[in-house]
Amino acid sequence: MSHTKAGFNTLSIHAGECHPGSEYAHVNPIFQSSTYSFPNIENGGKVFKGEEFGYIYSRVGNPNMTVLENKIAALEGSGITEKRHAEGDKDFQVVGLSFSSGMAAISSTLMGLLEPGDTFIAQTSLYGGTIDLFNNTFTKYKLTAIWVNDGDVASFEKAVQDNPKAKLIYIETPGNPMLTIVDIEAIAKLAHDHNMVLIVDNTFATPYLQRPLELGADYVIHSMTKYIGGHGTSVGGMVVSPHSEIMYTEIIENRHHIGGNPGPMDSWLINMGVKTLPLRMDKHCDNTEVLVDYLLNHPKVGLVLFPGLKNHPNYEIAKKQMSRYGGMISFELKGGLKAGAILMDSVKLMTLAVSLGAIDTLIQHPASLTHSNIPKEHREKAGITDGLVRLSVGLENIEDLIADFDQALAKV
Ligand SMILES: Cc1ncc(COP(=O)(O)O)c(C=O)c1O
Hints:
Mean pLDDT: 95
Oligomer: single chain
CATH architecture of the largest domain: 3-Layer(aba) Sandwich
Number of domains: 2
Low-confidence stretches: none
Largest sheet: 7 strands, mixed
Radius of gyration: 21 Å
Bound molecules: pyridoxal-5'-phosphate
Number of strands: 12
CATH superfamily of the largest domain: Type I PLP-dependent aspartate aminotransferase-like (Major domain)
Order of helices and strands: HHHEHEHEHEHEHEEHHHEHEHEEHEH
């Protein structure tokens, strides 16, 4: 089938499937093998040289990784590929590379694009592990992040002007956990005007709600541990880009040499999850919109952060670049940190756990969990107060989630 013309639900189910060698199995099998045999030494030599297609060793690639890579590349790239082909650019192709985690995808991509001594520009409000990577691990290799505190375009422009040698811009939108929204199209233009590339972490939105490549981004990153896999069974990461030459040299080499490949079973589980991504995302969004309303009207709740709220500072940008606003809410209780702790200890249906994007509702406290390693000063610049609670809204019946909030908030 021509994947570029099919609809999103169809792509989620069929893109990348039917790998040769699957013996016509209806569901693509798990290729639980660490190495691959060659029919003869001549073929082995050709596969090694890249003159013939074949699998060699699962760190380098296996059929389950390929299926997943092709599927996510089709989802992130569907609109732009169709557009570029219609414009006559028949060679335009979006490719994906899978990793053992979101962090492996982020580190391998940036280490592929940067060299020791390079600087790059990054948004202050990012997932805590990414901030740690940039501030701690990367500094050992002389890669320096220039932090931009506000998500507005003017702040990025100033950072670019002040740092003319910076090589790339790294953003996360919606950002974790402040749900910061950054204008992808404007930042992509800024990056390209200054000979830089733009990397977007699209974990919170997924390609169902937002497709950064269509807006001009160069690389899209996912923690597939979250909505892409969707069921909380596997850790995985993905990078998707039309820059296939760099993907298949600098970035894939980091996967080969550093070894951040996903296992066949995890790739298979995540691939099964992707098939219901559109259905799950619609339900995540439905439940979230009701809960935002509930929290806004609850007398014990203070601040509610959600990109779909008209008073969100970048609501208009969210509206322009997302089809809906996702399944994440951050909020503060009027009773601050103490009240938040009582809430998290009192919920019965919701689970107190980090991670997000699973079918069940997860609640957590960034200042003591996901963002606890980050210096308080960085946290404050990112706006992450000690009282902030982060909610990943699941697919349960909304009445049951509200009943759980009712009983837990009554104890606050
Ligand atoms: C936005 C975002 N990016 C990247 C990561 C890292 O992904 P992983 O935990 O799969 O390494 C996370 C993890 O929570 C995240 O929320």
